[in-house]
Amino acid sequence: MQHFASDNYAGICPEALAALIEANNSGHEPAYGDDSWTQGVCDRIRDLFQTDCEVFFVFNGTAANSLALASLCQSYHSVICHELAHIETDECGGPEFFSGGSKLLTAPGIDGKLTPDAIEAIVTRRADIHYPKPKVVTLTQSTEVGTVYSVEEIRAIAAIAKRRHLKVHMDGARFANAVASLNVHPSEITWRAGVDVLCFGGTKNGLPVGEAVIFFDKALAVDFAYRLKQAGQLASKMRFISAPWLGLLNNDVWLRNARHANAMAQLMAERLEGIDGVKVMFRPQGNAVFAELPPAVAQALRNKGWKFYQFIGSGGCRLMCAWDTLPETVEQFAAEIRALCAA
Ligand SMILES: *Cc1c(COP(=O)(O)O)cnc(C)c1O
Q1: DSSP string computed for 62-125
Q2: What is the per-residue pLDDT across 167-187, written as a single tens digit (0 to 9) for each?
Q3: Ligand 1 centroid vs 146 CA: distance in angstroms?
Q4: Which residues pair with 289 in a beta bridge?
Q5: Rounded to whole angstroms, how far apart are CA atoms 218 and 235?
Q6: Which residue puts its alpha carbon closest to atom 1 of ligand 1?
Q7: What is the CA radius of gyration of the chain?
Q8: Residue closest by Cα to atom 5 of ligand 1
Q9: Whose CB has fewer CB within 10 Å in the chain, the N or C terminal residue?
Q10: Taking the CA of residue 226 as centre, how many other CA atoms within 13 Å lie in the half-sphere pointing to its CB?
Q11: 176 neighbors 205 (Cβ within 8 angstroms)
Q12: What is the position in ligand 1's atom list of the atom closest to the CA of 204?
């Protein structure tokens, strides 16, 4: 049975699995990232972004975000993020812990997005020594509510950041879905728009495990390898984290996976919009649909075995589509909601 709880409920996509098996069959290789697979994937990522960047691999997104942010901050600094940001709500204080105390300063914003004004308001609120000095602004692309920052929005935020001497970090756990949605080159919403560091998610796009941390400003990556090692994020058999990326990068499988997941979210939204008693809360641009369902309907769906999260507002259900979500699953889920709402 397929579920809509998270895109990390899905398995490994065939291309990533094939690359993993190929790496396993290739014999002995040096450890700790000195292997040919890891070097090759780093080069592929540099090619993809059309720039000379520093690339690191970690086990998960919490480590990627926490350690990337820690490398941008001193303990007395602060990080500006949206109030729904994963780093604020779902990382158990990881960014604060690994940075040795950097505080997260949250701002509200419609559609899960920070705005230049919200950032400006936080930066100018205080300038005294008693306030943690703002040092980083972080954007989630695509956002926690399934929307996407446009190229112009990112540029505008990066412009404010530059003026206020803030670094720009991007939580790209669903970066692929944003690139697919915007139909732009990945550089256009990262370094060409002013992003300094990207946490490029692989897990939710079809990898078994692993995210890439990409420093477009290479100076910021100094000693990052030590930070990873200390945090327990340096994989000794790193090729098994890096090699599956080849499966995603070859033939743009990462974009195909993301386009498919996005299309399934579109289908879900279309089906739900026609149902009396159901409200789609945000215009889906990535692979998530948020819908308000009557509580009895949500409960009945759970009783039938469907899994999905309900954590935004009252009655807001997050329906997340993955690289392998079948249209039939969406149709069946929507049909069950329709029937329950009519009953
Ligand atoms: C899933 C996710 C992450 C990474 O979470 P892990 O469970 O630590 O891999 C980071 N940011 C966002 C927005 C996510 O959805």
Answers
A1: HHHHHHHHHHH--TTEEEEEETT-HHHHSSTTHHHHHTTSPEEEEE--GGG---HHHHHHHHHH
A2: 999 999 999 999 999 999 999
A3: 13
A4: 319
A5: 22
A6: 173
A7: 20
A8: 61
A9: N
A10: 3
A11: yes
A12: 1
Ligand 1: distance of its center to the CA of 76 in Å? Answer: 25
Which positions ≥6 away from 169 have C-beta within 8 Å?
Answer: 65, 68, 69, 72, 79, 136, 137, 138, 139, 195, 196, 197, 198, 199
Mutate to test the pocket of ligand 1, among 59, 79, 86, 290 (most ligand atoms within 8 A of CB): 86
Q: How far is CA 177 from CA 35, 110, 253, 271, in A?
A: 29, 20, 12, 21
Contact, 294 vs 341, CB < 8 A? yes
- Sequence spans of domains, the chain: 13-252, 254-342
CB 37 within 8 A of CB 243: yes
- Ligand 1 center–CA 275 separation, angstroms: 31
| CATH class name, domain 13-252 | alpha beta
Residues 266-317 pLDDT 10s: 999 999 999 999 999 999 999 999 999 999 999 999 999 999 999 765 459 9
Q: Which atom of ligand 1 is nearest to the CA of 211?
A: 9
Q: What is the pLDDT of residues 142-152, one digit of tens each?
A: 999 999 999 99
Q: Is domain 254-342 given the CATH code 3.90.1150.10 in the classification?
A: yes
Ligand 1 proximal residues by C-beta, below 6 Å? 60-62, 65, 86, 140, 144, 171, 173, 203
Expressed in angstroms and rounded, the spacing between residue 339 Cα and the centre of ligand 1 is 33
Q: Compute, in angstroms, the gap from residue 36 CA to the centroid of ligand 1.
A: 28
Indicate which residue's Cα is closest to atom 13 of ligand 1. Answer: 86
What beta strand segments (E) does 179-287 contain? Answer: 197-201, 211-215, 279-280
